[in-house]
Amino acid sequence: MHPVIRQFLTALCTVLVAGSMTATKALSDAAEVVQFSHLGVQIVGKPLPDGVFYDIDVASATDGAETVRAALDILYTRSPFNARAIDRLKAAGKVIIIYDPAFPPRELTKITIAAFLPDFYQKDGKIRDFLAVVGRFGGKWSPRELAPVLAHELTGHGIQHLRGRLDHVREVDLECEAYLYQENAYQDLGFDKDDRDMIRFRQTLERHWCADFRTWQIKHRPEGVAYWDKLHPDVPRILDDYLAYIDALKNSGFATRAVARARAEQNKLTADRLQQMAASSDPEVQFQLALVYARGLGVEANPAAARTWFEKAAEANHPRAQYEMARIYWQGDGVPADKTLSAQWAKAAANNDVPQAAYLYGAMLVNGDGVARDRAEGRRWIEKAAKAGIGKASEALKKLP
Predict the structure, then answer these.
(1) CA 115, CA 103: separation in Å to the nearest integer?
(2) Per-residue confidence at 5, pLDDT binned at 50, 70, 90?
(3) Nearest of 47, 17, 51 to residue 32 by alpha carbon
């Protein structure tokens, strides 16, 4: 998936976080979210949002996160090539894997197991975050099956991000390299190369994703052809030639022109999609559009537009949009702080079973912020938030008389 396309799809996906570490902090307050560090990698498991259903059984936040943990263990213990690459990523920034059962969005027609989301990194300084999302399909795979996909998404695309190539290399060439990391994992993990799926994978690798590279290699590095002509291709040596190929494309300007054309086409698709979303009367679509503008994913961040769409969705009784409106007026986020309005929206969202709103509204009742003080009623709402897993609510209860 080309990074420009991935960026816009990310904006429509319910993982929707402003930055990877910000995301994991915010997620820790949500009900049933699990979060832990393993082998120096931050792993987060998200629950399926309320009211969302799919035609497959979905792994829980805990089970999905544990599958990711086990897959990471397999890569580290059995694929030294990929383990070294992940260590390079950790040395350069934070490595994060999120299991999100709501990924990918419904409108995608193919099965997406996981994706590397390069938009979530610290743009200030030299530290970067490397974030991959495992979706509902990947959460049901065995750790051994998932490990090579992590090699593709996290390791392959992560190394490209580390080199600063995601925005300057054609999609077909990015995928060629990522699939080579996946091929290496299949070798190290002992997958049966005579299996029909493995044969199809090898054919797709050579005849599609790496076809242009192989043509270049035959002409400019003919001795490298021998690295392919075996049951287990010599991936490290192939990658040496691949890097020379990418440099040659860069020097010729061909890749730069191809990426510019792809970006222009995607900008048009993005504008068309945003226009379709803006014409929708569906509160969920309005909420997603608000998040697109709030996070600046695929478009320039536009807080005013975000508030407009949050408000439209909130007025149509969208629970999370109501909570966003409560937060906006509580914090004075681009508008004058108004605790009375904040309390009204917080109450609406709390009545619609948003745990964070229950905590906020309860605290406002306890303190008399924007609403008449009612400690008993406030405690009831805070208790409800605590039962839903909001850590701040549990801490607040300990301090209440």
Answers:
(1) 9
(2) very low
(3) 47
